[in-house]
Amino acid sequence: MRLVTTTSVEVDTILARAIYNETGQILLNEGVVLKEGMIQRLQALGISYIFIKDNQTEDIQYKSTLSDPVRREAIQTINSIFLEIQKDANLTNSFVVEKASRRLSELIRFLMAELAEDKELINLLSDAFSYDNYIFTHSLNVTLYSLAIGMELKLSPKELETLGLGAIFHDIGKLKVPLDVLLKPGRLTEEEYIAIKEHAEAGFQILRKVQTIPLLVAHCAYQHHERINGSGYPRGISGKDIHYFGKIIAVADVFDAVTSNRVYRKAMLPHEGLEILYAGSGTLFEKQVVEAFRYAVAIYPVGITVELSDGRKGIVSGQNTGLGDRPIIRIMEHDGEQVEPYELDLKIELNIVVTACDTTF
């Protein structure tokens, strides 16, 4: 399979992976022959990238970190819990959140077990590029990225559970932000931007009153937009004043935000998201956390076409555990000339690096 943009895919191309909406319903199933109307519909939904079948790469298979059924069940669990919390108009009933925290703790323990069993790099691309409803899928993705970072940093199971709960609840304050502001496609007014920024403190105020939730979980919601140079919000704290979990969730949050579709912009590819993290490493984000993220997450997903520093071009066919930016490449071209396909392992060929990605068909 190959990864291509919906703006470059040709009519009658075969879809290699099903596309779901935020409730887990299939928009288009695997094996569907894409027609003009389908492609236009995908573009209208904001879906930027899809996996397609290709004769030269039919043996290359993308493997998501969570199976489609497990992911749908997790999102539906988060969805139902958050909607139940939202029914309390002022979000003041701590009993509702307390009950929800027990169910979410069970979900986090399950996700921890899934990640521990599967030693491969975290790979959420096919899910991240599906049309999502902003809060629920984002909360799951940020939790998975945060747990992956925490595992790379050798946190204890108890610490991971607390971190996971902080990650899954990090945006709970957005339940108090009007949906038309959250999903506004155009530029926010100053008042709307202030309303968005208030979600961090709102989340803290909701969670700190819940006796069954560690206070640290509330601080994760409070601090995930703080930056180590003091340029973040809501308090503008810096350095050691920001809890380590807040620094972890900050990295996970930014990466998922920029690599997921939003009504106001298209998704970036993972390597572009990593470049944003690297640009802020040491100033906005903790260096150790960014490095742990790089080791744990697949930066160049299977199926994507890449260009190498020596003029060769190929498709990512596999990953190297612990080396998210050093995948295995199936070489297809050299200096613009097609060659007999062969595998090149960047874990071994250390003098060669990926210089560009190409998602055109």
UniProtKB/TrEMBL annotation:
<dbReference type="Pfam" id="PF13487">
    <property type="entry name" value="HD_5"/>
</dbReference>
<dbReference type="InterPro" id="IPR003607">
    <property type="entry name" value="HD/PDEase_dom"/>
</dbReference>
<feature type="domain" description="HD-GYP">
    <location>
        <begin position="113"/>
        <end position="310"/>
    </location>
</feature>
<dbReference type="InterPro" id="IPR006675">
    <property type="entry name" value="HDIG_dom"/>
</dbReference>
<dbReference type="InterPro" id="IPR037522">
    <property type="entry name" value="HD_GYP_dom"/>
</dbReference>
<dbReference type="GO" id="GO:0016787">
    <property type="term" value="F:hydrolase activity"/>
</dbReference>
<protein>
    <submittedName>
        <fullName>HD-GYP domain-containing protein</fullName>
        <ecNumber>3.1.4.-</ecNumber>
    </submittedName>
</protein>
<keyword id="KW-0378">Hydrolase</keyword>
